[in-house]
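This protein record is not my work; I was only asked to verify it. Take the sequence as given and treat only the tokens as open to question. I have pasted the whole thing underneath without changing anything:
***
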Amino acid sequence: MTQFLKKYAFALALSHICIISYLLLPQSNLWMAYDRVLVDSGQWWRLITANLVHLGGWHTVMNLASLWLISFIFQPLLKPSYWIGWVLFLYFVNILAMHLWTPHIIHYVGMSGALYGLIAACATAELRLGVKISGLLLIIVGIKIFLPQIIGVESEYDDFLGGAVVEESHIIGFIQGIILGLLWPKQLLNGPALQAILKAKPSNK
């Protein structure tokens, strides 16, 4: 248990913050959500904290479940400090890019854009290490993000989550993740994480 807590301390910390922010809704939304006007007035912390507040319970659960799944699979790819750096970097640049390039977006909460970026970064990095299945994962995620935009399908999650899904954050995050995975020095990667999981054999007791 101690080893688990140490290994996933960052994911646990983020989870606690998200749960507390959910319990404090709507007040937490007022202080943490991305708001274009307030960011322009100097409240730059919202470029990070918007990732940690959500529309409601299901939105919180879905984002945290995704965070934990990605952490379980890909966290061994990097040393802990680099993993934390990746997550915080993607939190920041995802919302910063929306602030700079999508002026029609006035309000935003959630970490799904950054999570798509994290998946893309990990899959791209592993593809550079020769893990072909990570390339397949990258293609599947890309299809999931871009196909609805191409064929004009509305998100089926809006009513379920309690608000509109900001697809632009997913697209921006995915592209940012690919760039991060391509530019990150290969010598700073521990080795394939997804491949190690797929090859792991259950222990005989």
About this structure: The chain has a mean pLDDT of 91. Strands lie at 34-35, 107-108. The radius of gyration is 17 Å. The chain is about 70% helix and 0% strand.
